[in-house]
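Cross-posting from the modeling subforum.

Setting up a comparison between two proteins and wanted a second pair of eyes on the formatting. Protein 1 (sequence, then structure tokens):
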Amino acid sequence: MKELLIQVDEQDNVIGPIERLKAHQNDGILHRGLMVVVMNQENQILLTQRSMERPDLGFPPAFPGFWDVTLAGHPKWGQKVYVPQMVDEVKEELGIEAKGNRIEYVGKFQYHAPDPTYPNPNTASTFRLSEREICGVGLLHTNDGARLNEVELQASMWVESSSLWDKLRSLKVAPWALLMVDKFPSILK
């Protein structure tokens, strides 16, 4: 069964379900996304690197090998609000059990980011992917150790929040992560 995401309008009003691939092909169709920033007691933020391949999707992943602050995902069709899906994504991608009241909803922003990875020699010359999202952002403070889902993530590192921008400048970073850090600088405090 194909994964259904939530297609929305510019005001984040639900239009209906949309298949994941269709939401991301070419210039993308506006849909809901989410991010969760994980910070520990030492004021470090967990960065993760996206997998190069995602055989579970049935198509190449968007932004393979790019780094993220901490994780990104999509609310599934039927989810009414962002935080319950954030809880699910944290468990799925990091193996951390987080109750909804432990994730602080920070806000949301809209963006469009064509993936520079495609087309490439392994795809058709017309294959393109983009992210076009209204992205909800959550913050999770925890010292629980992350166990990366190796299908989705290939590496991780903790970075002092005070030096996050310097670290991000040295990495190939997902564009939504840079936009989020710029839009919500209070997360770094």
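Protein 2 (same layout):
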Amino acid sequence: MPVPRSREYSRTVEGQNMTIPVWVLLLFAAWTVVLLSGTVGYFRWSRILTGRATIREWRPDEDQGTDWYRRAMRAHANCLENLPLYTAVVIALLVAKASSPWLDVLAVILLVARIAQSTLHIGPKQTELVAGARFGCYAIQVVCMVIMGVWAAVVAS
């Protein structure tokens, strides 16, 4: 079902409107896979293929690997925890037929904050400043999702 949008903000894929929040949902999912492949997957497979570990050694219920690896695991898990929440918001927007350039901006801000949070989680040394910035990125995502969810509820009522 196409979502009504102004021509200026419309994105068409084979005759169907694809909203910015839906594109962001797809990119959020893609980021989750890239994060898994580029961190956890790389760490594990580099050890398996060089004979330093076997496939069966990797257990989700044990504290394994380096500090960086554990942070990468947590960053990936955090994406997996938040992806369904954003999915629910996007579904609500679609069902309510809510559309606005402001929703588009909020969706893009959410994605940028998600990527920044993941990067801060796995990149620099975890100081108070880095942890604070990481939490700030998370808070931005929560605020964006709350505003978008409320918007959908208001439009639907």
